[in-house]
Amino acid sequence: MAEEFDLVVVGGGPGGYAAALYASGAGMSVALVEKDKVGGTCLHRGCIPAKHYLETASVFRTVSGAKEFGVQADQPLLDLGISRARKQKVVDQLWKGLQGLMKRRKIKTFVGTGRLGADHVVTVDDEAGTQLHGRHVVLATGSVPRTIPGFEPDGSKILTSDHVLELDTLPASAAVIGGGAIGCEFASMLSDLGCDVTLLEALPKLLPGCDADVVDVVVKSFKRRGMTVRTGVTVEGQEQSNGQVTVRLADGESVTVDTVVVSVGRRPLTDGLGLEDTKVEVDEKGFITVDNHQRTAEDGVYAVGDVVATPQLAHVGFAEAIVAVRDMLGEALEPVDYGKVPWCIYCHPEVAFAGMTEQAARDAGHDVTVSKHSFNANSRALIIGEAEGLVKVIAEKRPDGKAGPILGVHMVGPWVTEQLGEGWLSLNWEATPDDMGQLIHPHPTLSETFGETVLTLTGRGLHG
């Protein structure tokens, strides 16, 4: 007989554990089914370990440039084994903390793959064949890396992002296929640590979805640091010989490297969920169809995170989980506005943005006014030696010529992933540059560049 719960969550990544924690905080009895470790891809094979290695690259860059500050230091050498051990220490600390939190919240965890059947019964593929019945069910099984025909990952010469995070030594050269957020992060990290990197992207520009001015800064930085960037190229296949891989391009050219990293996005992991026995609908790409309250076509069954066709970001999974639980509770809620979610990309230089790009705003019919300010005029940026980048704010242009609500905030440069909060809030509160221009930004800080950018939109900028 199935054990009864108010909520059964299938999948323990950000969307899943957020749903479990939020529901338990509302007094619901919760069961969570996870086949691996609570925390999912983000904690164990994605966001957290990747950002650790990007921080390793940042430390390496800092030591390499120490002489510029009068600090005499030899050229650094990388011990990837130590960095990898530190990565695992960080991951384990966060994982144990999450496990402890789940236990304190009295969330019952079951290890195994959950399969949804009729009447909200989830069967776990453990030895006991455990059955769980929930008044509500949340599907949050996440995603896995996509692959390319002819580039099947082998963990040695053809790698996915999962493999890169477990490397014992870095290759001397690598081709990264895919110039999106993950591809640019890995290309940046590998290059900074001494790998000869070629970045290949099929689309006309890197970082699809980013503002063109931001992308220009990233590309110039990558090239200045010795990276080869090829856009508008597609791969046709590969051959391996003498320990190297030759990647054939559709234009007839080729690239020979030690290792290939395939970074062409992630696909939803909905295989084996048993959805064929329910009313839950799955589209042709494998995504579960939901409404703006995260409800599937099966009454009482919700889906959140990477299994739905929304931005594959951990914080979006968190937000969707909250929406789903509030709907179960019959509470008032605001659906996620996917056009205004914050995006952060941790390559060097960092990228952060929310809202419309300038081109998207114009394409949508907005009359816009735009302000851009470079970090090379920011005293704090010059002090830390990270003056590469800019802040760009796009606002509606009113009939009287004044700037109306902010439509988009786009940043590239030092620690912009930590600076986006103010821009994201201004966008979501539909603030105008006049609203934001009254705020005081401490001096000297990197945040002054955002302040100056919005102040200029009022027509009375101080420094530009």
UniProtKB/TrEMBL annotation:
One of its GO terms (biological process) is 2-oxoglutarate metabolic process. Binds 1 FAD per subunit. NAD(+) binds at residues 178-185, 201, 265. Pfam families: Pyr_redox_2, Pyr_redox_dim. Residues 5-321 form the FAD/NAD(P)-binding domain. It is found in: Cytoplasm. Residues 341-452 form the Pyridine nucleotide-disulphide oxidoreductase dimerisation domain. One of its GO terms (molecular function) is dihydrolipoyl dehydrogenase (NADH) activity. The keyword NAD applies. It comes from the Bacteria. Its cofactor is FAD. SUPFAM superfamilies: FAD/NAD(P)-binding domain, FAD/NAD-linked reductases, dimerisation (C-terminal) domain. Disulfide bonds join 42-47. InterPro entries: Class-I_Pyr_Nuc-Dis_Oxidored (IPR050151), FAD/NAD-bd_sf (IPR036188), FAD/NAD-binding_dom (IPR023753), FAD/NAD-linked_Rdtase_dimer_sf (IPR016156), Lipoamide_DH (IPR006258), Pyr_nuc-diS_OxRdtase (IPR001100), Pyr_nucl-diS_OxRdtase_dimer (IPR004099), Pyr_OxRdtase_I_AS (IPR012999). Its EC number is 1.8.1.4. It is an enzyme of class 1 (oxidoreductase). FAD binds at residues 51, 114, 141-143, 306. It catalyses: N(6)-[(R)-dihydrolipoyl]-L-lysyl-[protein] + NAD(+) = N(6)-[(R)-lipoyl]-L-lysyl-[protein] + NADH + H(+). The active site is a redox-active disulfide bond. NCBIfam families: lipoamide_DH (TIGR01350). Belongs to the class-I pyridine nucleotide-disulfide oxidoreductase family. This is Dihydrolipoyl dehydrogenase. The lineage of its organism: Bacteria, Bacillati, Actinomycetota, Acidimicrobiia, Acidimicrobiales.
